[in-house]
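Illustration 12: HMA domain-containing protein.
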Amino acid sequence: MSEHEAPAVMEVQGLHRASSKAVVEATLSRRPGVLQGEADPVSQTANVTFDPDRTSTADLIGWVRGCGYHCAGQAETYPLR
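Figure caption equivalent — predicted structure in token form:
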């Protein structure tokens, strides 16, 4: 990962169908600074790689909310032991 890439695991509530996954992924992929986004209905999250010089987690939250899903921000992640 380069210095112009940052990962985020965003909490996305309401992903219940494959079409929901597609909506979130398409919305994020069209936004400036988003390099990759993959929604996961099982964990109710979206794994996003973005350029922090071009966008922010606040923008990511707004875009997820804008397509109709609840997003409280970054999901808690725990290291594997």
